[in-house]
Amino acid sequence: MAAFITFSFLLLIIIFVYRNSKRRTNKVKLPCGDMGLPWIGETVEFYKAQRSNQLFEEFFQPRMKKHGNIFKTKLMGSPTVVVNGAAANKFFMSNEFKLVVSSWPTSSVELMGKNSIMEKQGDSHRCLRSIVTSTLSVSGLTAMVPRMCGSIENHMQKNWLDREEISLYRSTKMLTFTIVLECLFGIEIVPETLFGVFERVLEGVLSPPVNVPWTKFARAKKARAEIEKVLVGEIRRKREAMEGGGEEEDDMLFSKLVAASIRGEITEEEVVDNVVLLVFAAHDTTSYAITMTFKMLANHPDCYSLLLKEHEEIASNKRAGEALTFEDVKKMEYTWQVARETMRLCPPIFGSFRKTITDINFEGVTIPKGWKVLWTTYGTHYDEKYFPDPMRFNPSRFADPVQAYAFIPFGGGPRLCAGYQLAKLNILVLVHYVVTRYNWSLVYPDEPILMDPLPFPSKGMPIKISPKCD
């Protein structure tokens, strides 16, 4: 009897809250749109379009044509407002912590870590971000370039030498993973031992958070526990050495994070979660950007000729076996134009979710407190207002300044990707080594791109390679 009364009481509360919220939302002008089916909304349509890498063509674009640049929907159980355009990007990105906060699906938070910079707000976010950005200062990047060259040399010696064909995507994934561990963190772990485990975690980051043995999420949780066990061991070994005077804090990010934990600024859990997050953020999207850059170059030989000339001029001033310097990288201006144009057309992420912490009035509509907001890269990247003839590959459009908040593969505002400079360095240095040392061609020029949960070439982007003569 008591259980029945309790249940009835809870049900009445739920009905009261629901009706109250309906009454409140009926009084304001909400964005146009379709909320779809009860609870699941338009999640099925969203996932279907995402899987085939047709989010813009099959999900966002039809709704933008019907409802405008701002429309409502329901995704993964949450009322969501999709916003498009540079003004919307600027408004929501620059008002992080004031009007909106980061809001990722439950599975992403569980696997990346509740204590990662992705979930932190205010002072905690600023503390972690300052540690990361201090590693990627000009002096940090200058010191990183030779280390990165060494990692690339070793990878090519091991995986490219005497090969006629390689999977460019798989090779760059392993290489960028190695660079993150060796050059950013300075963690002394054989990358191959953890690469496959991290890949299993990635498979679950946007899956339904159902923790039963046969699901992607459960497999990802198990893999995440394996990674955590290894990292905790490394953290405690490093901490013991630093506290005992055997090691000092250096310019590597892992050392800086452990030193911050010794000072009591962050916890061991925060060290673990931020290593996990930054490994994913710094290697998976970068490897896709590199792969697609080569696809674009293969399909646009005139652009490749200009890029190759830039790198041959840099190489002509280096001795045999001499590593690149940060000054050399700064000369790769056209290459960075090519990379940015590639990321405009083939963004490594489709956008990012935020949650409103107050009612927001924007462009004549109200977004209620507690709703999700999703900004998309496609909303400006494919808009001729910002990029004339937007579907044409034209790297030279980046020779001139681009309107603020129109090009957003790395986000913007306080949440601007902290690893932006590392990604840029990684792309430019690897492109240099490939184009100056190898002749290459795509095996499948029209290879389809799929998405699960991030975009990837369906066949791994195999390329034929042959060493250039000295």
UniProtKB/TrEMBL annotation:
EC numbers for this chain: 1.14.99.37
Coiled coil: none
Membrane topology of this protein: Single-pass membrane protein
A Pfam family matched in the record: p450
Matching PROSITE patterns: CYTOCHROME_P450
UniProt key word Disulfide bond: no
An example Gene Ontology molecular-function term: heme binding
Residues annotated as binding heme: 417
InterPro entries: Cyt_P450, Cyt_P450_CS, Cyt_P450_E_grp-I, Cyt_P450_sf
Cofactor(s) in the UniProt record: heme
Subcellular locations according to the entry: Membrane
Recorded superkingdom: Eukaryota
Signal peptide: 1-19
Entry keyword set: Heme, Iron, Membrane, Metal-binding, Monooxygenase, Oxidoreductase, Signal, Transmembrane, Transmembrane helix
GO CC annotation: membrane
Assigned protein family: Belongs to the cytochrome P450 family.
Name of the featured protein: Putative cytochrome P450, family 718
